[in-house]
Amino acid sequence: MLSENWLGNRIFHSYADILDHYCDAWNKLIAQPWRIMSIGLRRWTHGF
Length: 48
Description:
Layout: H1 2-7, H2 15-30, H3 33-40
């Protein structure tokens, strides 16, 4: 999800650049709790 939407196909120029992009992607994800809920409600997640 993170890699498909906010981190895919990127070239990072430094460690700080990686950290900035990952923090931004994480903040976008936690601002959308329904995305996390939709993953947890999928049928295949109940088999573990």
